[in-house]
Every structure is written in C-alpha cells, then in structure tokens.
Write a structure and sequence with these properties.
- The protein is of the alpha/beta class.
- The chain has a domain of about 160 residues: 3-Layer(aba) Sandwich (Glutaredoxin), CATH 3.40.30.
- The protein is about 50% helix and about 10% strand.
- It is built from ten helices and eight strands.
- The strands form two sheets. It has a six-stranded mixed beta sheet.
- α1 packs antiparallel against α2 and α9 runs antiparallel to α10.
- The longest helix is centred in the first third of the chain and has 22 residues.
- It is flat.
- It starts with a helix and ends with a helix.
C-alpha cells in the first residue's frame, strides 16, 4: 500500500510539472519549446526522493475499527438478527408482491358445493400488457419458448388500436423477436426478417376479471383444488417458485427446472 502511494505521488508530481510548462506563456516574439529532458529527469528524481522520505501517520483507531467490525459481524450472524431479517424479508414480499391464495380456495369450494366440480387440469397463465417494458416481456417469452410441457399461456387484455391495427402489429412483431436489437431489412429485391419466437399470445380480457388481475405482470396457477395468483415484476421462475411454496405442485417444480435449464 505504501509503495503504491509513493508511486502515485511521483506520477502526480510529474503531471503537475508538465502542466505548468504547458500553461506557461512564452516571452514576446519567441516560440514554445519542448521541456528540457534534464529538467524533467531532475523533477522525477526529486519527487522519488520525497516519496521515499514520506511516512504515513499511524492510525490510532485501528484497534477500535477491528473491534467494531467484529462486533458488527457477530451481530449480523446472531440468531436474533437473522430471525428479524427473515421477518423483514417476508414483510417485503407481502408489500411488493400480491399473493392471493385463500380467496381462490373459497371460490373453488363454492363451486364444488353447487355441484360444478373443476376439470382437474392444471393451468398456468402469465398476464402481461403493452405497458410492461419490452425487455421484461421479451425475457418471459424467451423463457416460455424454452419449454413445451407444461404449457404457460400468455394473456393480454388487448392492445392499443386493436390486433390488426398498425400499432398492434408493430408491438407483437417487436416483442417476439429473438433479438430485440435486430432490425428487419427490406429492399427492392429481397427482404430480411429477424428470427422470431413462435409463442402464442391470447387476448382474453375476461380472464383478467375472473382472476382479479389488477396489475401486471401476474401469474395464475390453477388445479383441481385451488388457484394461486401472484402479481409483481420479477423473473418468471421466481414468480412460479413463490406460488409453489403454497401449491406444492410437481408440475410447477418441473417447469421451474426447465426454465432454469435443468430439466
């Protein structure tokens, strides 16, 4: 550390000298001349001597600093603090993410009481909209494209201007690109289109109401017994993993592994 500091002082001294020479005004009628090499050498030698004679002050707070660092580390790893940290993390998840479990269970129970039993088929819906950043939607599409079964259905309420409008066509054409930076090229003789994912996107405004989707992105998982919904702008595998803490679904577990490239 001391060696590096001395070298830094040496470099600064040379830079300061060259700067002074460069800024100096020449006498009237004379041209600028290059610095004398002997003078530069003398300055460097002097700076090196000064750096060698320099002594750093002793840090009288060194022991106190080490003691405080150890105390902080011990406090962080203490069971009491770790328990508090876990509680704060759980509270943060509740505030940032909206995970709804019980209300959907009640709906299922009411349906069974009326004699309309569920089909038993597991379904996974990923709700998005054009308000979600392209990079986020693109990451979801890329993750879904890597898997075939079990399927995740992308759901949108609609698009500005309608599906066949210019804005609608441009939006789907853009987000389905495998590379968002790619640009389609069209000439008189040929047309080069960027590769795109073959991931279907369904327009189903009724599902937004059915599952009470108030913000996107959102994921809904439903099976024969209950449904789970989570809303929050996070990676798809995390959203599924968070649902599966409650659902305990082998299907979701398999899906998460596939998204992560382990399945």
């Amino acid at each position: 550390m001391l060696y590096l500091l001395r070298q830094l002082i040496l470099i600064l001294a040379v830079i300061l000298f060259i700067g002074r020479v460069a800024q100096a005004e020449p006498p009237a009628g004379k041209q600028y001349t290059q610095p004398d090499p002997a003078m530069v050498s003398a300055v460097m030698k002097k700076a090196k001597e000064e750096a060698g004679n320099m002594t750093l002050p002793v840090n009288k707070y060194n022991k106190q600093g080490l003691k405080a660092a150890r105390q902080s580390a011990d406090f962080f790893h203490s069971p009491k603090f770790q328990q508090r940290l876990q509680c704060e993390q759980q509270q943060l998840e509740k505030e940032v993410f909206s995970l709804d479990i019980t209300s959907w269970k009640r709906k299922r129970q009411k349906a069974e009481a009326k004699g309309t039993s569920p089909t038993g088929q597991e379904k996974i819906f990923l709700f998005i909209s054009s308000s979600v950043p392209d990079e986020t939607v693109h990451a979801y599409i890329a993750a879904i494209a890597r898997i075939t079964e079990p399927a995740i259905t992308l759901i949108m309420r609609g698009v500005v201007g309608g599906l066949t409008s210019r804005k609608g066509i441009q939006y789907f054409s853009r987000i389905l690109k495998k590379d968002l930076s790619c640009r389609d090229e069209k000439t008189r003789k040929s047309q080069k289109r960027c590769p795109r994912y073959q991931v279907p996107i369904a327009i189903a405004a009724d599902l937004f109401g059915q599952y009470g989707i108030s913000q996107v992105p959102a994921v809904v998982y439903t099976d024969a017994k209950s449904s789970f919904r989570i809303q929050g702008d996070m990676a798809l595998e995390y959203l599924l993993e968070r649902i599966n803490r409650e659902a305990q679904s082998a299907t979701l577990e398999k899906l998460i592994r596939k998204i992560r490239g382990h399945g």
